[in-house]
């Protein structure tokens, strides 16, 4: 399958947009290589700001430029923008309603062996609790392009987390991709997986393995964590009767937390939240960590079997 890094997709598109629109600005914090910005700084130097290792300042400067009408995309390690710069994101961007897109690169466990200081496994929970701030985790390069196009045309305060490495290209075009609207794969009635980021590809692989066993599932790409597409959650809950959430994030406060908040108050059904446990995780590549925690395709298959068993037991006990 074709692969492409979300960062590369962003840099190519934003360069095209910047050449046509002088208001497009990219701000970076000593990470233009990791951000895969390519020729952008050389091609449009007057629309590029290098802040050095100063993420808090970068967010505030970006908010100031957005306040006077610029279309600002500020990028750097997700681990730093979601923690070190959290107050500036909360006050200067969201509270002040400045249309800045904060792009957290190398999200989740993308930095691998650099360890816990560079992992961002709490960022969704931080960011989705901030009023006026959307939260987006694209699953592939096509989705990243669609989100970028939408933000250039109609900016809003938003946090976007992307993986470091190339990921499978899942979507052929951007026509059905909108911020705030989930994308559905398959129409299985046995169970539903709601996933985000690069784990969507793992969920799709698991769906193919389960199909060979005669188990038909639905996969939902919930790329926007906030605002959450509750209509989609309601639909697949009623059709499938059980949900497994899948994310490269702590099991506390992320996609699983958001979905369970809705499910518990509206359509209580069997549900499992699958992510990174509340512990210091071992160092390794993302694929190694996914396998270790059962977030690879084979691990997901086992989880779905258990979830379906839970659903059957719940029905046998009268839903109690």
**Order of strands across the biggest sheet?**
3-2-4-5-7-6-12
The level of helicity is: 40-55%
Using the 3D structure, state the CATH architecture of the largest domain.
Answer: 3-Layer(aba) Sandwich
The helix-strand sequence is EHEHEHEHHEHEHEEEEHEEHEHEHH
Number of helices: 12
Distance between the termini: 44 Å
Count of folded domains? 2
Query: pLDDT under 50 segments (min length 5)?
Result: none
Q: Would you tell me which CATH topology of the largest domain applies? A: Rossmann fold
Mean pLDDT: 95
Fourth-tier CATH superfamily name of the largest domain: Thiamin diphosphate (ThDP)-binding fold, Pyr/PP domains
Structural class: alpha/beta
Account of the protein in words:
- With 320 residues, this protein is an alpha/beta fold.
- The protein folds into two domains: 166 residues, Thiamin diphosphate (ThDP)-binding fold, Pyr/PP domains (Rossmann fold), CATH 3.40.50.970; 133 residues, 3-Layer(aba) Sandwich (Rossmann fold).
- Helix content is 40%, strand content 19%.
- The strands form three sheets. Strands 3-2-4-5-7-6-12 form a seven-stranded mixed β-sheet, with helices on both faces. It has a five-stranded mixed β-sheet with strand order 9-11-10-13-14, with helices on both faces. A two-stranded antiparallel ribbon has the order 1-8.
- Helix 9 packs across helix 10.
- The termini are far apart.
- The model has no long low-confidence stretch (mean pLDDT 95).
């Amino acid at each position: 399958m074709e692969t492409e890094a979300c960062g590369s997709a962003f840099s190519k598109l934003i360069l095209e947009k910047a050449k046509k629109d002088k208001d497009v600005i990219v701000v970076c914090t000593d990470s233009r290589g990791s951000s895969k910005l390519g020729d952008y700084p050389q091609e449009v130097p007057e629309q590029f700001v290098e802040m050095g290792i100063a993420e808090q300042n970068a967010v505030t400067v970006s908010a100031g430029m957005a306040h006077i009408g610029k279309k600002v995309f500020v990028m750097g390690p997700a681990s730093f923008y979601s923690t070190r710069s959290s107050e500036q994101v909360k006050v200067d961007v969201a509270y002040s309603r400045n249309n800045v897109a904060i792009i957290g690169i190398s999200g989740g466990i993308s930095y691998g062996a650099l360890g816990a200081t560079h992992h961002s496994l709490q960022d969704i929970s931080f960011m989705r609790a901030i009023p006026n701030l959307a939260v987006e985790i694209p699953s592939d390069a096509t989705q990243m392009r669609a989100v970028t196009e939408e933000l250039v045309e109609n900016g809003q305060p938003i946090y976007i987390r992307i993986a470091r490495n190339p990921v499978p290209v899942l979507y052929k075009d951007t026509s059905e991709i909108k911020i705030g609207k989930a994308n559905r794969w398959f129409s299985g009635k046995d169970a539903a997986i709601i996933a985000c980021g690069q784990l969507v590809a793992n969920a799709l692989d698991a769906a193919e393995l389960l199909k060979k066993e005669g188990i038909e599932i639905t996969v939902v790409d919930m790329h926007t964590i906030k605002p959450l597409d509750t209509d989609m959650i309601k639909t697949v809950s009623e059709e499938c009767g059980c949900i497994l959430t899948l994310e490269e994030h702590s099991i506390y406060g992320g996609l699983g937390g958001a979905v369970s908040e809705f499910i518990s108050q509206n359509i209580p059904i069997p549900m499992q939240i699958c992510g990174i446990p509340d512990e210091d995780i071992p160092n390794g590549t993302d694929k190694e960590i996914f396998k270790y925690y059962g977030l690879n395709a084979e691990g997901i298959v086992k989880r779905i079997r258990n979830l379906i068993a839970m659903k059957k037991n719940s029905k046998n006990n009268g839903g109690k």
